[in-house]
Specification:
Blueprint: H1 10-27, H2 54-58, H3 68-71, E1 79-84, E2 92-96, E3 102-105, E4 110-111, E5 114-119, E6 123-128, E7 131-136
C-alpha cells in the first residue's frame, strides 16, 4: 500500500523541508574560493592606549564642569538666583544685586551696571561695556 500526498500538501511539505534543511546548510563551514580565496583575514582591531578613567570617577555626576571663565567671575557681577518663565517668550532672571536685594530682570534691563543680555536654562549672560560674563545658577 503506497502513501500518496495530495497535491495541495506539496507546497507545505516543500516549505517544511526548506525550513529544516536551510539552517543545517548555513551551519556547515565553507572555504573561500575564487578571486579573494588566497587573502588573509586581518586581525581584529584592538585599543593600544587605554584612556585614564580616574578623572571620570572623580568628577561630580550631575553638575557641569566649571570653566575657567566661570571661576573668575568679577566680584561685582550679579548673582543669579533663578530663571522663571519660558525661554524666548517671557523668561525673567531672579538676580541678587550688590545690596543683597533680589529682583527680576527681563532681557535688556540692568542691575549694578550689568545689563542682562541673554538667558539660558542654567545661566544668565550679562554685559558691561565690552565685558561679557556667564553667571551660572548655583549648584544644588
Amino acid at each position: 500500500m503506497a502513501v500518496t500526498i495530495p497535491r495541495r500538501w506539496w507546497a507545505a511539505a516543500g516549505a517544511g523541508a526548506f525550513a529544516v534543511l536551510m539552517p543545517a546548510l548555513l551551519l556547515i563551514p565553507h572555504t573561500r574560493s575564487g578571486a579573494g580565496g588566497g587573502q588573509d583575514v586581518p586581525p581584529p582591531l584592538e585599543v593600544r592606549d587605554q584612556p585614564a578613567l580616574g578623572p571620570v570617577y572623580e568628577r561630580a555626576l550631575f553638575t557641569a564642569p566649571v570653566d575657567q571663565a566661570e571661576a573668575a567671575l568679577p566680584g561685582d557681577a550679579p548673582a543669579l538666583v533663578g530663571v522663571v518663565g519660558r525661554l524666548g517668550d517671557d523668561a525673567v532672571a531672579l538676580v541678587r544685586g550688590a545690596d543683597g536685594a533680589t529682583r527680576t530682570l527681563q532681557i535688556g534691563e540692568s542691575v549694578d551696571g550689568w545689563q542682562l543680555a541673554a538667558l539660558a536654562i542654567d545661566a544668565a549672560f550679562f554685559t558691561r561695556g565690552a565685558q561679557r560674563v556667564r553667571v551660572p545658577l548655583p549648584a544644588g
